[in-house]
Specification:
The protein is mainly α. Helices cover 45% and strands 4% of the residues. It has seven helices and two strands; from the N terminus they run H-H-H-H-E-E-H-H-H. The two termini are 16 Å apart.
């Protein structure tokens, strides 16, 4: 992370609840070093144990990642960066549009009839569209995501880890965008 990126990112970092006046052990490593390590891992697609010696030990980086994943701090950080970018562009901080894929998803037998639809073209029962309170605006999303090697492979065993790994490339992209003059 460049110094300019760090200057932009530092005030937007979420503070874990345990550090908000509740005490606890101090952080052993600088957040910048930890963020750099996670960014390196996501960008280069390495395993946790293959973390270069320039970064903190892989166990500490993984503990940092796990703590941010479990306390939903990765999403919070992502949302703060997104809001800052949207503010800078003169837009509302929350997205107001969404993209719906028209692909039919075959519904399982356990899916209730109240959420099923019928695709007349393919003659199958499918799951209906559900409005989600927060929607992502997909703008060349998959191209940016697939640039990060970690997402090309399926390393994650937990869905929460896989979800967090999707947020990190977007964090990388937005950090670079915010650091630009």
């Amino acid at each position: 992370m460049t110094d300019t990126e760090w200057a932009v990112v530092r005030p937007l970092l979420p503070v874990p609840g345990r550090l908000r006046g509740r005490g606890g052990p101090p952080e052993a490593y600088c957040h910048r070093a930890m963020l750099d390590a996670v960014r390196y891992l996501v960008d280069n697609g390495i395993k946790w144990r293959a973390m270069p010696a320039d970064f903190p030990p892989w166990e500490r980086v993984y503990a940092f990642f796990r703590r941010w994943r479990d306390h939903v701090l990765v999403k919070e950080f992502h949302d703060r960066l997104r809001s800052r970018i949207r503010e800078r562009e003169g837009r509302d901080t929350e997205p107001t549009a969404g993209v719906i894929d028209s692909q039919s998803v075959k519904a399982d037998a356990v899916v209730g009839s109240d959420s099923r639809g019928f695709d007349g073209g393919k003659l199958i029962n499918g799951q209906g569209f559900v409005v989600v309170p927060k929607r992502w605006i997909v703008e060349r999303l998959f191209a940016h995501l697939m640039r990060t090697r970690r997402l090309v492979r399926d390393f994650e065993r937990r869905t929460t880890s896989a979800e967090a790994m999707v947020y990190w490339p977007m964090i990388l992209l937005m950090t670079r965008r915010l650091a630009r003059p």
